[in-house]
Amino acid sequence: MFVGGALSDAAVPLAGTALIVVGWVVVLLTVRARRPRDIATDDSAMLRVHHLTKRYGARTSLRDISFAVQRGCVVALLGPNGAGKTTLLRAIAGLIHPSAGSAYVMGRRITPGAAVLARVGVAIEEPGLAPHLSGRANLEFLWRASGRPMAEAQLELAAELAGLTPYLDRRASDYSQGMKQRLALAGAMLGLPELLLLDEPTNGLDPTQTRELGATLARYADSGRTVVLASHHLAEVDDVCTDVLVLHEGELRWCGPVSEVQHAAGTITVGVADPAGALRRLTSGAAWQALPHQPQFRVGARTIVIDLCGNTVRAVLAAVADSGVPVDSVRSSSPVGDLYRELTAKGSP
User: Fold this and answer.
1) Which residues lie below 8 Å from residue 163, measured CB to CB, with a gap of 6+?
2) Domain ranges across the chain
3) Is 163 exposed, middle or buried (0-12, 13-18, 19+ CB in 10 A)?
4) What burial class does residue 271 get, using C-beta atoms within 10 Å of its C-beta: 0-12 exposed, 13-18 middle, 19+ buried?
5) In DSSP terms, which residues pair with 228 in a beta bridge?
């Protein structure tokens, strides 16, 4: 689905009908709850979810979900397939009715067609587009469906933020999967909504494009907006996201700032032919010495195991690359990934 932000009140009902053109959600979201059941007690939160439950017949997709999210955050919504991530995003976007509980954006309760949904940008599931039209024409069609003047769409800026500018005037039928994802993101950013909900926005993107997307979302949040994104790219979560939600079997297992997780040491294991020589080159390099925290390390027969010690995976890998050490292999253990695996392990409470 494509649902651009800043719709007029009269046009808001389109958010649940005619604007369901591209499906996939980017969510800029700040989870400040230390435990899953904590929620904000005032309307200062960008997003609040209060005891939200969704049932489909005898199956419960979401069970008593509560959390609060502030402005200026990028929140990762993590969980295996079937955990309830997309269902939660759809409930926040007003696309489905919860069986119990509520979601609030900027203090306003979310219902299908609620006026506050004009300030929410949504991209859920597979991007849908008109293949015979250009990317620009797809975005123009989407925005016109909102009933607002094209001048308010800020189409060029949305396309630039999404990295779509070089492809705007190409026919969508010629788009790669990654370009379709960029088009979906640009559509969600039309009107520069204050809350972005994104579902697996990095699908179809290569590692470089994924890093560029992360930087884009961080800049978007720096402007005081909020992003919530469902993702499986755990290393990118460490570097880009400020907060984490972990869903498993319809339950919220953990929520809180990434900084609370990163004090636990993740590791990077670097395969090298001469560990002792590689270590000397690495630790004498300017990039290594410039790291905010000096990593610890252990030397194996043909490996160096580096403890992150609060540094990001990206920063340590950059230091390894800058040293010029010949590397045979690299494996990383993300602190967020470790938490995710622990909380979603079979038999976990």
Assistant:
1) 182, 209, 212, 213, 216
2) 2-260, 267-333
3) buried
4) middle
5) 197
User: Which of 37-46, 110-119, 204-213, 273-282 shows the lowest per-residue confidence on average (mean pLDDT)?
Assistant: 37-46
Alpha-carbon distances of 272 from 143, 280, 281, 314, 327, rounded to whole Å: 53, 12, 12, 19, 5
pLDDT band for position 235 (cuts 50, 70, 90): low
Predicted TM-score (pTM) of the model is 0.69
What kind of fold does domain 267-333 have according to CATH? Answer: Alpha-Beta Plaits (3.30.70)
Cα dist from 261 to 126, 228, 249, 252, 291, whole Å: 31, 18, 22, 16, 19
CATH number of 2-260: 3.40.50.300
Question: Do 267-333 and 2-260 fall under one CATH topology?
Answer: no
